[in-house]
Amino acid sequence: MNRQMAVGQGEHLNETKASWGVILLGHGSQRGASPRECSCAWQQPAQDEGNNGSGSGSVADLPGWPVWCRRCPNTPQGLGEVAQRLQDRLGVERANVMLSCLEFIEPFPDEAVRLLSQQGMNRVVMLPYLLGHGKHATVEMDEMLEEVRAQSPQVELLLADGLGADPRLAELIVDRINSMGEAAPVPQDGVPVGILLVKAGTRTQYDDCLWLAELGRMVESRMGEGYAVDVAQSHYGDPTMEFAAARLVDERGVKSIICAPYIFFPGLILTRNVLGTLDQLREVYPAVSMVVAPPLGVDDRLIDVAADRVREVWGED
Q: Which of 25, 240, 255, 262 gets the most CB atoms within 10 Å of its CB?
C-alpha cells in the first residue's frame, strides 16, 4: 500500500494555541493522477504520451489540450491545499486544521485525534470532506467515531455535516461547464442541451441520492432555459448513467450532453467509470454529441462550505 504522509501532522501543527482541533477527513487515494486521467483528456486524439502522458511534464505541453483545462491536482496534493485553505479561513487562533483520510494517506483518524490531543486540543471537530452520503459518510463514519472515542476518551469529538447540496456547489458546477467556452454545446432551435451530473458510485442501500437530485435542480435553475439536467452515479447504485442518459435523450429530447463529473480530482473513478461509461453511451447514441467538463478541483466555494460546516458545530452563523 502506498501510504503518503498528510500535511498537518506533528511538526506542521500551529505554534499558536488554538482552542479547537479540526480534522479535514477525506477518503484518500493510493495513487496520483497523470493528465491522461482527467476529463480534459477524454476527447483528445491518441498521442505518443512520452513524459507528458506519464505525468512528469506540463499539461500545457500536450498537443491539442483544451485551453479550459483546470490542471487539477491529484488527490494527495489537492487535499493538502484544501486543508491549508481551510486553516487560513478558520484562523490559527481559533482552530488547528489537520488532514486525515479514511484510507491510504496518513495520519488516519485515530492518529490525527491523538496528535491533536497531545498538543492540548481535546475538543475536535471531524469534518467529512466527502461529496456523497454513501457508506463512507454513514456506516463507516459511525464505526470510526465509536472506535476513536474509545481510544481517546479524553477528547470531545464532534461530527460536522458533510458538504451536501449547497447552492455554492451548484454555482461551482455551472462555472466548470461555462469554463469550457466554445467546447460546450449550446441550445439551438428549441432543442435543449443535456447536462449529466455524475457522482462517484455508492450502493443504493447507503445513499438514495435525493440530495444529488436536489443539486441537479439547482444546477438546472442556474443554467437557465435551454438546459436539461439529470443526475447519476458512476457505478454500483441507482440512478445509473445509462438510465439518466436515456431520460435526457428519450424524455427531454436532447441532442447533445455535457457530462459534469461531481468529483474532486482526476483518477481511476473518473477515467474507468465515468469516461468509460460515456464511451459506451456514445455507441448507444451515435447521433448525440457528448463532451465532458473538468472535475471540481480546489475552489474557494468548497472551502467556504467546509468552513461553514465547522462553524455550525461551534454554534456560529
A: 25
Give the integer Cα–Cα distance in Å for 128 and 26: 6
End-to-end Cα spacing for the chain: 41
Domain that holds residue 109: 4-30+73-163+299-314
Q: 227-233 and 256-262 as β-strands: parallel, antiparallel, unpaired? A: unpaired
State the CB neighbour count (10 A cutoff) for residue 188: 11
Share of the chain above pLDDT 70, in %: 84
Q: Which amino acid is at 63?
A: P
Number of domains making up the chain: 2
User: Is the domain of 153 the same as that of 13?
Assistant: yes
Q: What is the DSSP letter of 257?
A: E
Alpha-carbon distance of 227 to 229, in angstroms, equals 7
In 91-138, alpha helices (H)? 109-118
CA distances (Å), 294 to each of 23, 63, 178, 240, in order? 27, 18, 10, 20
pLDDT by residue (tens digit) across 128-157?
A: 999 876 544 556 788 889 999 999 999 999
Residue 60 lies in a domain: no
The CA distances from residue 250 to 83, 133, 238, in Å, are: 43, 29, 18
* Contact criterion met (CB below 8 Å) for 75 and 63: no
Q: Which amino acid is at 294?
A: P
Q: Which cell numbers in the block locate residue 232?
A: 447519476
**Residue 134 sits in the same domain as residue 206:** no
Q: Which three cell numbers stand for residue 74?
A: 491529484
Q: Is the pTM of this model over 0.85?
A: yes
Mean per-residue pLDDT over the chain, rounded: 87
**Alpha-carbon distance 223 to 168, whole Å?**
14
